[in-house]
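Blinded run. Sample ID left blank on purpose so nobody reads anything into the name before looking at the predicted structure. Input follows.
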Amino acid sequence: MMDRKIKIGIIGAGKVGVSLGFVMLKKGLSVIAISDNEEDALNNAYRYLGSKGNIIFTKDNFYALNLSDVVILAIQDRLIKDVAGELYSKAETFVNKVIAHTCGSMTSDVLKPLDEKGAALGVIHPLQTFPDIESAIKVIPETYFFIEASGKAKDVLEFIGKKIGKSTILIKGQHMVLYHLSAVFVCNLLCALLYLSENIMKKIDIELAPFFPIIKATLNNIEKKGPLYSLTGPIVRGDVDTVFSHLKAIEDERLIKLVYKDLSLVAAQMAKERKVIDEKTYKKIEDILRKDSI
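Blinded prediction complete.
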């Protein structure tokens, strides 16, 4: 099965399913079918994939499965169990088939009891943000794929992940939630943090654009040195007065002040760990950040 003749079916014609299918075809893999219960989603998938090969576009998930050696469920997390149940009820056997989903917070156990009928189960999660299909197609080749699987499923999913992405990393099922939480912190909550920053900027008629160079420089530093040794700013300098002035400036902004205090406490712990501030300075900063009245 480990060659270009592997027949891949994708259930779910959304951003993830279509972009994965596009890159798979570009890399020489055989995507044989894509299914979705929404006509509009299938039409959109056809616009991207229709000219790339002899792909079957169907509303019948079971038909897509029957045509395929490997089936990837690229659907919303809440639908995975139901779709797995639908497939289980219609099939007598899944022998020689690999069935996987793309959810980063759920293990392959959500696909049970498909394994009772012979399916090899797994997870293939692209550690990437997919705001739209076009941007997803561009970044997938530089994306790490996290694989939760064993045996045949592990071998097949690693083959696919390495074929279309930068590389693959194996992860244990019991670590999936913390892995996904890590991804939320570095991606989703980073967006939330920048959104709060933008709200502060708007108060003085400044746009986000001039801040992109410092954001990019910070990320470059983190890539080279890690977060601990990339931290700069008033807390690393032990500048208690600046921290106090920040808090005074946002004393009426409950949410912004809450986030600032919590993250600044983390920054103070980092500075202490690096030994760039002494215990006395750390205590001063901590006391200011923990006060309710500021």
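Unblinding after everyone has recorded impressions. Residues 185 and 191 are 9 Å apart (CA to CA).
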